[in-house]
Amino acid sequence: MKKTLSWLGGLMLLLVVTLQGCGHGYIGRALTSTYLQGHRTAHIDDASNFDQAIIAKGADIPWDKASNYNQQQLSDTAMAHHVKHGTAAFVVVRRGKLVHEQYFAPYNAQSKTNSFSMAKTITTLQVGRAVQEGFISSFDAPLTEQIKEYANDERSKKATVAQLSSMSSGHEWDENYYLPLNMTTDLYYGKDAQTLVLSHGFEREPGSAYEYSSGSTQLLGVFLKRALQAKEPELTVSAHLSRSLWAPLGMGSDGIYTLDRPANQGGMERTYCCIFATATDFARFGQLLLQDGRWNGQQLLDKAFIERMRKPDLQPYYGHSLWMDWQYKTPFYLLQGHEGQYVIVVPSMDMVVVRTGQHRDKKTLGPNGQLPLEIYQFVDEAVRLVEPTNSTHSAMN
């Protein structure tokens, strides 16, 4: 047995070395960060596998608790779903107050887990702030305003910042989270995100079609970084996020942004995927959207910009870095991340629902045929929790 394991280990090492020699140097980190840690893909606790930058908080503004805080329990069916899929936190906020807050071991209220693609929405929000602050000329600014590498490409010259956000820029990308030899895996585990996304051109006319792409949001991050540093050379994406949104929102904890490599080696934030925060801090982004960009008497983001984000673009289920179903009985929109990270906004209920966790049921789809059914189930369960006498059923049943 020991000889067999030694032989297999040697074979794996040889394979990794061979792949690195063929230009797939990220494979070693991918294997050690997933399979050798007992995971088949990236996971919500993987911050320690990467270099990091702190998203500093300002003055802590704690959430108020509703008079019925935690008075209603999750249904048996909902609890079984959370346990089965490794939920870390389930939080419901209504009318700006915590109504339900529940954590599943080993997680607690202080646990900071990975946003995954919820970061795409946060990046778009941050770009909106940068526009208001004058770092970026417009949300519809041409990509070549900062990305000069595309200046001679006919398609890319037509692409805009907003199209990167709405997944309609035409930037070439292959989105896959499970194949080891894949550009998305390279983006996650590689050490030069900027060079990788800039190495891909534009495969279709900007604005002509929707295609979900992590590369698009990382390219948006490159644009944002350059725009910030054109005016303040030392200003990083994480530092700007801190002063423009994190601190003003009164976050309870510092956030963590993971980088592609050490900051002193030119590392940059992985703007498409990887912000670590507590569930109640993630909820603040949902509340900001619900309040049309207004927070504590200050208009952090223009209402028109928020309205544009949550309006369907080329597909009825996607706007600008927001997923949505406006046809559901309780219409909603949301931030959505890999393995079931959700911040769901339900305007008609004045409600924000947060679920973070290790896995999700992605195969069973909801009424619109695009979003997982469990999102609808979380919405229905949250409605039952906040209005138990008016809720006659739950989609968990």
Describe the structure.
The protein has a seven-stranded mixed beta sheet with strand order 2-4-3-13-12-11-10, with helices on both faces. The chain has a four-stranded antiparallel beta sheet with strand order 1-6-7-5. It is 33% helix and 15% strand. A hairpin with a 2-residue loop joins strand 8 (294-295) and strand 9 (298-299). It is built from twelve helices and 13 strands. With 397 residues, the chain is an alpha+beta fold. The chain has helices at residues 2-21, 27-33, 76-84, 118-132, 161-165, 183-189, 193-198, 214-231, 237-246, 279-290, 303-309, 373-386, and strands spanning 51-55, 64-65, 87-94, 97-103, 113-114, 255-259, 275-277, 294-295, 298-299, 323-325, 332-337, 341-346, 351-357. Helix 4 (118-132) runs parallel beside helix 8. The protein has a single domain, classed as Beta-lactamase (3-Layer(aba) Sandwich). The longest helix is centred in the first third of the chain and has 20 residues, at 2-21.
CATH architecture label: 3-Layer(aba) Sandwich
Low-confidence stretches: 1-22, 392-397
Number of domains: 1
Rg over C-alpha atoms, rounded to the nearest angstrom: 21 Å
In helices, the fraction of residues equals 25-40%
Structure summary, number of beta strands: 13
Q: Please, how many helices?
A: 12
Shape: globular
Oligomer state equals single chain
According to CATH, what is the class?
Answer: Alpha Beta
Sketch the major β-sheet. 7 strands, mixed
Proportion of beta-strand residues: 5-15%
Termini Cα gap: 48 Å
The CATH superfamily appears as: DD-peptidase/beta-lactamase superfamily
How do the SSEs run, as a string of H and E? Answer: HHEEHEEEHHHHHHEEHEEHEEEEH
CATH topology: Beta-lactamase
Report the structural category: alpha+beta
